[in-house]
Amino acid sequence: MLAGGLMMTLAPLNAALLVESRHTLLQATTQFGYLGNVTTDTDSVNYQSLVSNLQSQLADSDSGSGSLGDTSWAASYEFRLEQSVEFVSGGIAASGSVSAYAFAGDQGVASVDATSGNQLELVFSLDAKEAYRFSGIVQDLTTITFERSLGGGLWTPVVEPGIGVFDYALDLQAGQYRLSGIGGSYHDSSQGSGSSWSFQLAAIPEPASVATATASLLLAAAAGRRLRRRNQAATTPHQP
Q: What number of helices (H) and strands (E) belong to the chain?
């Protein structure tokens, strides 16, 4: 930890990525019961720590049935929201998914609304220019945004991924950035949809750094071979 954030030094790269804040919100609203007696409820969890609850989830289910006068009713629902955040050497990886199901028969009422229910926001800064690869997938009911701070609470898009798989090579300048992933789901007894999103921001090693690392490995391998030959020579009996 450094200055209230999470520091990832990108050795042997030149820049350091400092994660300054994280906000995770998982939230779902349900309507459940029968005509004349419907209960609305909202479940939610919030996390802001950079080092705990990085694998978070929110889930619930309920069911009921009975009679009301000359009619009967049946209703049930279930939902699950899951999110994963990983701070890796040289970058960030995150994913989120939302699923929901509801059933109602006769006079029953059941629905789940988790629209924009799986949300992650990460703010980080770079202390020097660096090359990154930004990749992931966006589905219906989801959005991923990558923005750079202009100061004064203003942000401007770095890239704006559309629906589908995306993969960008980016030269990021020193400054403050914001990464967001949002996903939703709904079901209203007869139809609905789930969703998932994922992204990864990974530093791209500079060619010179790759060449230096490769050369170091080759030198180490050569030195190891020479040492093995000397050891073998020292332990081989001398033949007169």
A: 1, 16
CA 152 to chain CA centroid, nearest Å? 27
Query: Could you report the per-residue pLDDT of 170-188, keeping only the tens digit for each?
Result: 999 999 999 999 999 999 9
Contact 116, 184 (CB under 8 A): yes
What stretch of H or E contains 65? Answer: strand 55-68
pLDDT, tens only, 200-213: 999 998 764 444 45
In DSSP notation, 74-142 reads: EEEEEEEEEEEEEEETTEEEEEEEEEEEEEEEETEEEEEE-TT-EEEEEEEEESS-EEEEEEEEE-TTE
Burial-class residue 125 by CB neighbours within 10 Å (0-12, 13-18, 19+).
middle
pLDDT of residue 88: 83
Residue corresponding to tokens 């967001």: 180
> What pTM, to 2 d.p., does this model score?
0.79
Interatomic CA distance for residues 196 and 182, integer angstroms: 9
Spell out the residues 6+ positions from residue 160 whose beta carbon is closer than 8 angstroms to its own: 145, 146
